[in-house]
Amino acid sequence: MSLGSRIESKGMLATSIFYAIVGIVFLGLLPLSGFAPHIGLLGIFSLVTAYGLLRKRAWSLWLVAILFVTGTTFALFMIYNVLPSAFLLGLGIIAYLILTWVFTAYAAVRRRTFEA
Predict the structure, then answer these.
(1) pTM summary value
(2) Which residues of 49-83 are buried (b: 16+ CB within 10 A; e: fewer)?
């Protein structure tokens, strides 16, 4: 059985891929940040959320909500502190913030997909 036949919605696949990429990027940035625990936790939660969304687990919606709140807080804090000194990094964080809102809204709209 191929991945395409298990995923009916390309939007949910895109949401899973977004959270997987964010998790990998955050874990990759972990050594550069001096092993800041909040970046590691965001990375781990993002990877677990990507798995849950891909497998259509109901608990993944809770992780999406947690990542929405923590990711938004993290991004706003970073934008406030980084944007004046590192413009490109600030633009990347703004893109992360916008995509987090978009994919959270999509998962919330498609929440009936996860009900057993």
Answers:
(1) 0.85
(2) bbbbbbebbeebbebbeebbeebeebbeebbeeee
